[in-house]
Amino acid sequence: MSGLHAMLVHFPLAFWALAILMILVAAFVPSRWGGLCKGGLLPVLVFSLLGGIAGIISGWIIWPTDANLYSPLVRNHILMAFWSMGIFAVITALAWRFKEEAFEGCFRWVMVVLALAGGLLFAITGTLGGHLAGSPTHFSELLAATGWTVYETFYVPDWVLVVLLLLAVISAFAGFTAKAVKTSR
Asked: How far is CA 15 from CA 43, 95, 156, in A?
């Protein structure tokens, strides 16, 4: 039964990887390819969120809640899965609400930073899932170098909280600046 979960989670991972590539092309390539990526991004993001929901639900159905919440490794896996979903839900909302404007001015940088952060979080989610499936990766060694022991630690290192706070402040500043510029036109 756990094979079903592994199969389901690879769909949103593939769509999120494609979405990151599309966001980077849309943000930095002002040609036909950039326009195609802007136009095709929203369906990719919607399918990724639907796949992510299916993956999370299958994980909760397959393994008992007590088992899920006992292990720090599983708790971190669940936490990172929800953070990944949250970031890509925000990207989806921005792409839906602002369409092509999401790639103009400072909004472009918000999309790029969110996409790269979401990519990092889904990479961590997948790495932790690989450990749970008995297939650890070398990415875990990189996590250990940042102070995160995947089998024992249930927290986000302090430096990550500082980076997240800085990103939140920068994003808020970019949003207010863009709004002020838009209203002055």
From this structure: 10, 15, 26
